[in-house]
Design brief:
3-stranded antiparallel beta sheet; 17 strands; 51% helix; 10% strand
Amino acid sequence: MSDVQMEYNNAFDDSKELFTPEMENGNWLSSKHAQLSGTQKKGIFGNVKKDSSTFNNIKNTLSTLNGLLEKKMSGDNYDNQTTLQMAYNAYMALIQLCDNYLLDKKGGVRTARTDTGKSRIKMVNEIKQFAEKDINAVRVQMYLPDNLKGTTLKEAIGKARMREINLTKDESEYKHVGGLASNLLVIPKDSEGTANEFFSDLKIVDRNNEYSNILGYVEKAFKRSKINSESKSKVLKAILDSGKTDKKSIDRIVNADRNKYEYSNDPEAVKFAMEITKITMDAGSIQATYENAFMKNLLDIKSDRVNMNARNVATSRIAELFGRGDLIAKSEMAVVKEYGNGVERVGSVMEGVGGKEAITTLREDLVKCCEENGRFVKVDEFKNKVVGLIKGDFQRDLSDLQVLDFLCGQIDRHFKNYFVQKDSDGNYAGVKGIDNDLSFGNAKEKKDKYIYGPHGRTVVNSNAELIIPHMSLELAIRVNMINESMVKYALMDLIAKPEIEAFCERLNLLKMAIRKEFEKAPEESKLVSKGKWDSNTLKDFITGLSEKKDKNLDDGTANYVGRFVEEFAGLSGAYHKNEELNKWKQKS
């Protein structure tokens, strides 16, 4: 591997490398073509030499692609598919040419002794990496040819890679939700009546500095605070002058050592310092993310820098690829252009979801049950009532969500990280997962239990046997259709190679388990087709693995459906006091 390739791989999750405007607005091809055309091959003594045929072919292919990308797409799907296929073939040819150029005559990694030669190697490496990302975008648009009318292919590819959101007023006038460290900008939808979207600024976790984002949060507070600029500047100056931006140092500056700094005599500045205290308190979530991301037996991520937003988007893409995009809140990388100043902020945007958090749903229904049947409701009685609300589609959705989470290495699917939808009769009808940033590592089982991470469950054992009571037949068929190349195309611009390989290992293990189920007699198979989920399948979920003591979990089951029911039972047994019910009513 060349030094340039190593440098690129090390920066794979860094937003400055992944999501620059040049790459995301579709202009990189013409830019790189101009760069290549403007260079001259020189010897070690500075003499100009003739370009190789491979190098000229790269320039010519770039030129061809530029022409294709400027072509206006028509309203005819067949014509659009033809153009997309031509572009796809040209990209594949370009990647092959780049591979050929990056090898020396003996098949090893190409090196260069001159600055010009090194620069060319770097440019060809970049062209290859960018082209591989564009291929993914082309493939996305191949499934959506009817959306391309009136756009150029370049514009279509840009849309497939990143959303652009233009704020229509100053950001301080918008609503923000979440904690200070996980602050989300609410993007209202227009007149469609659909749910709002939520923009999250880029969150990069660094292996060597888990608090690398703290100063960024301080700057956000600086921008959004109503306190006068002079007072805020005093606090910010104290922090910057200290040369340290970790949580412990900032805590000391704004709390214990406050009187050592000039700002301590300014009441407004002290007030702003207290806002920063809230930020550092909220930074516990960053510490947890850091530990979860880099700790062995949890995510165990191999990269030094982790783009958490990209993992949300990657989960969304996988759900779409496996035909269950309805189970994960759709997420996209996005650039927000601030009103009036043209400043761009990169991050991700997530769609709003219907329903309520699972834990909120549980509590509200417990309150309702207690109000209808008296303050004290026996656990079994309440459990039976809840079981009656769980319909077949809800079982299927939770089971499919667990399968997707297993594939994605999700370790954080707790009861606040998925929403429950109800039908008009109050029955549980569907689910949708949110906050998928703790995913795509190389998660391992915890000892001899089917659990990994704080809130992760597997679906197969080490012998490639399906251990969840049931899996949907439709998803099983889809899993068998997906190959490693399709996964790599979907994820390569978002997460690093080791995490993609870990995903593929889990995929192949699941495929083996599914094949074993297909070989069984229909009445013995755990695969259930749509419309066949009923009280019998629900009973299997509730029983789970509770009878297998060697694999028993703390909550009795290794499946999401069983956990959902047991959480109900736990709440009903633990919270019958009026003051607890009143608290839940107020929260609701």
